[in-house]
């Protein structure tokens, strides 16, 4: 009965082709936007404990602080039987922190490059840079009459 319905819906019995086309036309999730901000199931900013408006320096500072705390060679926390999970849990936390830092570092670098491209394309920035180079604020400009 399902084959008959598929044959009616897709003439010639090409129901598999129609199914593939329908699957291809379904909306896709916006993965490009979310992959950059998430580290597994957690937001990378939350892993490092910084705000979304944090600069590259603030992100690096938070990473170094957490890396010193959870690095497997330096970890002096609770033993494995404790509530925190011991050295293995610290190692996993360190890997999560490192992944969050790398993700955000690349994301911030791409944002800076995008801004530089916008500045290079916009002709007003060329005029501004030329003005800053030749005259700029605080430089003397002599006008001969």
TrEMBL record:
A GO biological process held by the record: protein folding
Where is it located?
A: Membrane
In terms of SMART domains, this protein maps to:
DnaJ
Instruction: Output the Gene3D superfamilies linked to this UniProt entry.
Output: DnaJ domain
Q: What species was this sequence derived from?
A: Taeniopygia guttata
Secretion signal span = 1-32
Q: Per UniProt, which keywords does this protein have?
A: Chaperone, Membrane, Signal, Transmembrane, Transmembrane helix
Q: What is this protein called?
A: DnaJ homolog subfamily C member 25
Taxonomy of the source species: Eukaryota, Metazoa, Chordata, Craniata, Vertebrata
- Residue ranges annotated for the J domain, each copy included: 43-109
Per the record, membrane topology reads: Multi-pass membrane protein
By its UniProt entry, which InterPro entries does this protein fall under? DnaJ_domain (IPR001623), DNAJC25-like (IPR044632), J_dom_sf (IPR036869)
Q: Which PROSITE patterns match?
A: DNAJ_2
| Pfam families membership | DnaJ
Similarity comment: Belongs to the DNAJC25 family.
GO cellular-component terms in the record?
endoplasmic reticulum membrane
């Amino acid at each position: 009965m399902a084959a008959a319905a598929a044959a009616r819906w897709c003439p010639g019995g090409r129901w598999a082709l129609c199914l593939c086309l329908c699957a291809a036309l379904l909306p896709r999730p916006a993965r490009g936007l979310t992959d950059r901000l998430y580290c597994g199931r957690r937001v990378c900013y939350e892993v490092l404990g910084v705000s979304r408006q944090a600069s590259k320096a603030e992100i690096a500072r938070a990473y170094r602080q957490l890396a010193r705390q959870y690095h497997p060679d330096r970890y002096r926390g609770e033993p494995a039987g404790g509530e925190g999970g011991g050295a293995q849990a610290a190692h996993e936390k360190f890997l999560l922190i490192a992944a969050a830092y790398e993700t955000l570092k690349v994301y911030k670098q791409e944002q800076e490059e995008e801004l530089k491209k916008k500045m290079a394309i916009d002709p007003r920035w060329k005029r501004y840079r030329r003005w800053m180079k030749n005259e700029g604020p605080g430089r003397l400009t002599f006008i001969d009459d």
